[in-house]
């Protein structure tokens, strides 16, 4: 891969990681919401104005947690890919390229 191809892929990866960071807030919030609703309810649990039995509400919360785990896994793989791309860069980097690498490192 050429230097420019690596930088272009790293730019796409930084953009994707930013979106994944925002996206991660949704399943995180859903898991916390489900756990709080389960913790403060008795036999029936209301999630998003829908009443569930405690067992089914637990299953819904577990599904929220699995979605959260999947997004976390995607982010982890993207970070590994970014590290591999950065390790392939050789020679002197321009200021913009160095800033791109700093942006990637901040997204961890």
UniProtKB/TrEMBL annotation:
Upper lineage: Bacteria, Bacillati, Bacillota, Bacilli, Lactobacillales
Top-level division of the source organism's lineage: Bacteria
Name by which UniProt lists this protein: Uncharacterized protein
């Amino acid at each position: 891969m050429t230097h420019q191809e690596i930088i272009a892929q790293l730019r796409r990866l930084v953009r994707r990681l930013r979106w994944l960071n925002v996206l991660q807030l949704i399943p995180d919030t859903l898991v916390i919401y489900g756990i709080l609703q389960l913790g403060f309810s008795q036999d029936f649990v209301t999630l998003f104005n829908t009443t569930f039995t405690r067992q089914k509400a637990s299953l819904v919360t577990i599904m929220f947690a699995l979605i959260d785990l999947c997004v976390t896994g995607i982010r982890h793989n993207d970070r590994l890919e970014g590290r591999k791309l950065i390790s392939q860069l050789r020679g002197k980097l321009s200021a913009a390229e160095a800033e791109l690498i700093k942006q990637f490192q901040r997204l961890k």
